[in-house]
Amino acid sequence: MPTLAPSIIASDPGRYAACADEALGAGVEWLHVDVMDGHFVPNITIGPDVVEALRPVADEHGAQLDVHLMIEEPQQYVDAFAEAGADNLTVHVEACTHLHRAAQRIRAAGCNVGVALNPATPLGHLDGILPFVDLVLVMSVNPGFSGQSYIPESTAKVQRVRRQLNALGSSAHLEVDGGVAPNNAMELIRAGADVLVAGNAVFGGDQPVAQNIEALRNALTLKV
After folding, report:
1. Rounded Cα distance, 56 and 51, in Å
2. In the 8-state DSSP scheme, what is residue 125?
3. Is the pTM for the entire model greater than 0.90?
4. Which of 220, 222, 202 lies closest to 211, judged by CA?
5. Cα separations (Å) of 136 from 80, 115, 169?
6. Which of 34, 37, 66, 134 is catalytic?
7. pLDDT digit string (tens) for 148-204?
8. Interatomic CA distance for residues 198 and 116, integer angstroms
């Protein structure tokens, strides 16, 4: 079964820990934490203190904290988020002048290395870095706000990244973030993704979180 990673910023900001506990209690293995600085993307979200507060909740459920740094000069903040309890630290290729240095900094801090691409960023920006990463994150919306619609062209991009990873014999995860819902989840898995970030599909609407997660799981058990 592919990994589901509920995006905590789509939940109630006053109840992050409780919402995380609810999602992880439904059996998901990762919790996705979006960090935005108001510069790289037009929104400001959370910092290391919230990651630190979520760490005990993740530990209680044996889950990973998947921290996505949508910030300028992310290498300056790697140590702070690693010390706060991040398991995965993903930086944007668009935000790093020296991407290899950022990857080395993340590895030295004891975290898994992730790199992310915005929808309009060519795959050539991954040249040379793929052998050094544990995770590639394909953004399927323009980053900054939850609740956006999936960009259909992202599916082909996921397919191309999967081919590149396979050609290298890489075991890196291929993650998709943005507009993921039951109606496109299987399409993304068929394209080669193995981790799906879901925000509104988990925390939005009137249904309980566990029921929303079950709907995503059911979508992923359809015959290919």
Report:
1. 10
2. G
3. yes
4. 202
5. 22, 5, 14
6. 34
7. 789 999 999 999 999 999 999 999 999 999 999 999 999 999 999 999 999 999 999
8. 16
202 within 8 A of 23, measured Cβ to Cβ = yes
Residue pLDDT, tens place only, 36-76 = 887 788 777 889 999 999 999 999 999 999 999 999 899 99
For the cut 90, the answer to whether the pLDDT of residue 223 exceeds it is no
Determine whether 177 is an active site residue. yes
Q: Report CA Rg, the chain.
A: 16
Q: In what helix (H) or strand (E) does residue 30 lie, and over which residues does it extend?
A: strand 30-36
- 59 Cβ contact partners less than 8 Å away, ≥ 6 residues apart: none
Catalytic residue among 12, 66, 177, 206: 177
SS3 18: helix
pLDDT bucket at 222, cuts 50 / 70 / 90? low
- The answer to whether residues 143 and 182 touch, using CB atoms and an 8 Å cutoff, is no
- Is the C-alpha dihedral spanning 181, 182, 188, 194 positive or negative? positive
pLDDT for 25 equals 98
Q: Hey, which residues does 114 pair with through a beta bridge?
A: 90, 135
- The CATH class given to the 3-220 domain equals alpha beta
